[in-house]
Fold this sequence. Notes:
Layout: E1 3-7, E2 10-12, E3 18-25, E4 33-39, E5 46-51, E6 57-59, E7 67-72, E8 77-82, E9 91-101, E10 104-109, E11 113-117
Parallel strand pairs: 2-11
Antiparallel strand pairs: 1-3, 3-8, 4-5, 4-9, 5-6, 7-8, 9-10, 9-11
Amino acid sequence: xxxxxxxxxxxxxxxxxxxxxxxxxxxxxxxxxxxxxxxxxxxxxxxxxxxxxxxxxxxxxxxxxxxxxxxxxxxxxxxxxxxxxxxxxxxxxxxxxxxxxxxxxxxxxxxxxxxxxxx
Length: 119
């Protein structure tokens, strides 16, 4: 059974930092790219940043310079370091793993973790 489990969310003041984790099980994690998405109340889910199997990253504009994603394949875990948080970063954050194994595309979502930025 494949699972992606996010953790590390919580309440933080503006300007603060959080590190989210996405722990994978049931897949060969190193063969999967990992994306981070978020969904604010009343809004569509949006892409934030991704890291591929080689460790290359790409981010959407509002995350550049503030958010950094990384991975530790030995721990089957991806991370999202979020700095200089703003109230508009408040959302449920999800990790998403996608890979091609034996010619078949597989993708999985985590259950999400709440991030609230408020004073």
